[in-house]
Amino acid sequence: MCPPQSLFHSLCRALNSVVRCERGALFATIVACTLLLTPAGFGQESTQSQPAAPPKRSGAPLAGHLSKFYDAPNPLPPGKPGELIRAKPADDFYLSADFSAFRILYHSRSVSGQDVAVSGVVLVPDGTTPTGGWPVIAWAHGFNGVGRQCAPSLLRNLYYGPFLSMYINLGYAVVATDYAGLGTDFRSAVLDAPSDATDVIYSIPAARAAVPQLGPRWVAMGSSLGANVTIGVAEMESRTRDPSYLGGVAISGVADLKDVYERLPKEQASRMLEFLAYSVKTVYPDFDVRDMLTEKGLAAYQQINESCGSVGSSGGQGPASEPLKQNWKNSKFVEEFFERNSLGWAPAYGPLLVISDDGDPGTEPSISAQAVARMCKQGDRIQFNSFSSSQPGLVIGDSVREQMSWIEARFSGRPAPTNCP
């Protein structure tokens, strides 16, 4: 569940090339390069009306688990999107930063408009709150499964520990949603970026209700699946036009979902189909997964909520042989799902930094460039940077300097760059 050691090395290289940020923190002092996953205990629950107080850390040998905190009231009392249900100080996270953490449970909306509860975490730097409150990064995580137990907030390092630590050390608060169905007892939309983007947007007012020290201004940021979610946030903001939203950083994985599937290695593609069927069924309840999957595919489909990990991992089951029926792409539900997960068909509100990973076989430069070209054509303001990482997945570390310079400029009010034609 922890990012590979090579990812830490990539981050270290990037940090050492920058040395200092404008807030005076030493990039090189970020201990992500030597991150150790040490367990810790739990904090005490608080209510929405109580002021947020930093939890005290303990060395109790407890890892994150699916506690009662994640159980939403049943039936769920009506609430506005973004309304906080409850918050709880947490001391069971281990990051190489000085911070306070709070678990949150809040109201969001499913694709059908159903009121759903979503869990997440707010990470706040220690120290004096700056004038106007802490600037906020809304983190959109990558794929990690569909089961409740797959919520990143159940991991001591939140899956992206080195990078979240870096953002905290640089003076940013991080609001990290789990997405509906991960943590809470609702069906996950998993690969549906618009659904996940909804949860990201509504995590912001919920986090502010739980932690008043947060400032109003925020940027969205995500890698892999989270990159498409970040662009989904920008497209949704074109309707809501939140003046506090400053833009987004999409790192690797920026491509239409259909194009990603067609370019994945065979084993990964076979595994992805189970989650694709699950996602289509969530978005379109009338979809019959038997129109897509064979009996062998159905057997694997029925077990996908039992393990967590990347799309390419087998969860101990292995990819199903002959999982697909012929002409499965002709299903109107599959076609509509692919269409709603295409990029550049709706205008983005606010600027975007899009970082491409040339080494990622699922998002080769051509399909990322195609998506960006559509977005540029409709007038989106995009800075598109391509990196040639030594291994797939390392671009998030190799592009640290570009990420942080771009984010700092947004909070400083400087004009956003673009290299659109």
Overall pLDDT level: 82
Beta-strand residue percentage: 15-25%
**End-to-end separation:** 40 Å
Helix/strand/pairing category: alpha/beta
Q: Give the helix proportion (percent range).
A: 25-40%
Topology, number of strands: 9
Main sheet characteristics: 9 strands, mixed
Question: How many helices in DSSP terms?
Answer: 11
What general form does the structure show? globular
Q: Give the SSE string.
A: HEEEEHEHEHEHHHHEHEHH
The main sheet orders its strands as 1-2-3-5-4-6-7-8-9
Round the Cα radius of gyration to an integer and report it.
Answer: 20 Å
Unreliably modeled segments = 1-63, 312-320
Write the layout of secondary structure elements.
Elements: H1 5-16, E1 84-90, E2 99-109, E3 115-125, E4 134-140, H2 161-169, E5 173-177, H3 193-210, E6 214-223, H4 225-240, E7 245-251, H5 257-263, H6 266-283, H7 295-301, H8 332-340, E8 352-357, H9 365-377, E9 382-387, H10 395-398, H11 400-412
Parallel strand pairs: 4-5, 4-6, 6-7, 7-8, 8-9
Antiparallel strand pairs: 1-2, 2-3, 3-5
Helix pairs in contact: 3-4, 6-7
